[in-house]
Write a structure and sequence with these properties.
This is G protein-coupled receptor 3. It comes from Poecilia latipinna (sailfin molly). The protein is an all-alpha fold and 308 residues long. It contains 9 helices and 2 strands. A two-stranded antiparallel ribbon has the order 1-2. Helix 3 packs antiparallel against helix 4.
């Protein structure tokens, strides 16, 4: 995926050899591969780290029979989505700097990246929904029926992500009409605007779910305090300490979530093909960086996964 229409996939060079006839020299002109850049190296390194980290998480969950609760299905889906994002970054580096770029390679990497980021963001929303339901329906959540519902939800998420990601390959691209390109070639501005608009909706729904988690947790704390006949405004030190620790973790998760996804979602709506590619890099890097942070924030902090 190239960042805008002004960033050509390669520079043409004559490649003349002194012992070739002139007519053969002109017919054998080959495009040169672009020079390796710091962005390209960072892209390859980050993609490798993302793929390795999430492969460990996915393998651990799938290989452990005891990790079959709805939350672990959601974490496996999140890890798989982020794993594909890392693979897409590696493929983008290879197609950009190691082999001759082509239209099909741009469509492949952009479609894979869109699919993985869409599935990752929807899986994050699913994790928030799981946390909300586990608090509001603590006695029944986690049963076999809940696992089947979680599996059905994930199936719909991945089907939707694959359909959305197939858009560029099915013809919704700007390769034949550069004027319609967005800040991320070969995606059209209409396609990226709809995509980023959907991302913003998912972000808003996820924030609402976490707000509901805070309300449910507060009601539970108040009910426990009432049953124990002491004021909730003056709990003992261990309760204050655990509540403060849980609240700080929630703030960290929400800050990383919004900080990673909001910049690119807004920039995709506001920018176009004439926008400076540096701005696109600056907003796309945090979105891809979320795939590096998600295993740490969601999976590796789980004691059952760490034990496995």
């Amino acid at each position: 995926m190239i960042l805008n229409a002004s960033e050509l996939p390669w520079d043409e060079s004559s490649g003349l050899e002194p012992f070739f006839p002139l007519d053969h020299q002109e017919s054998s002109t080959q495009p040169e591969l672009p020079a390796l850049t710091v962005w390209g190296v960072a892209l390859c390194i980050s993609g490798t780290l993302i793929a390795t980290e999430n492969a460990i998480v996915v393998t651990t969950i799938l290989a452990t029979p005891s990790l079959r609760a709805p939350v672990f299905l959601l974490l496996a889906s999140l890890g798989l989505a982020d794993l594909l994002a890392g693979v897409a970054l590696i493929l983008h580096f290879l197609f950009r700097f190691c082999v001759e770029p082509s239209d099909w390679s741009d469509l492949l990497t952009s479609g894979l990246l869109v699919t993985s980021l869409t599935a990752s963001l929807c899986s994050l929303m699913g994790v928030a929904l799981d946390r909300y339901l586990s608090l509001s329906h603590a006695l029944t959540y986690g049963s076999g029926q809940s696992r089947r519902r979680a599996a059905t939800l994930l199936l719909l998420v991945w089907l939707g992500a694959c359909v959305i990601g197939a858009g560029p390959a099915m013809g919704w691209h700007c390769l034949e009409e550069p004027s319609s390109c967005s800040v991320a070639r070969p995606l059209t501005r209409t396609y990226l605007s709809l995509l980023c608009g959907g991302f913003l909706m998912v972000v808003v729904v996820t924030l609402q779910l976490y707000a509901g988690i805070c309300r449910v947790a507060r009601r539970h704390a108040h009910a426990i305090a009432t049953q124990r006949h002491f004021l909730p405004t003056n709990p003992p030190y261990p309760s204050r300490h655990s509540s403060g620790k849980g609240f700080s973790r929630l703030i960290l998760v929400l800050s990383v979530f919004v900080g990673c996804w909001m910049p690119f979602s807004l920039w995709g709506l506001l920018g176009d093909a004439s926008s400076p590619p540096l701005y696109t890099y600056a907003t796309l890097v945090p979105a891809a960086g979320s795939s590096l942070l998600n295993p740490i924030l969601y999976s590796l902090r789980n004691k059952d996964i760490r034990k496995s």
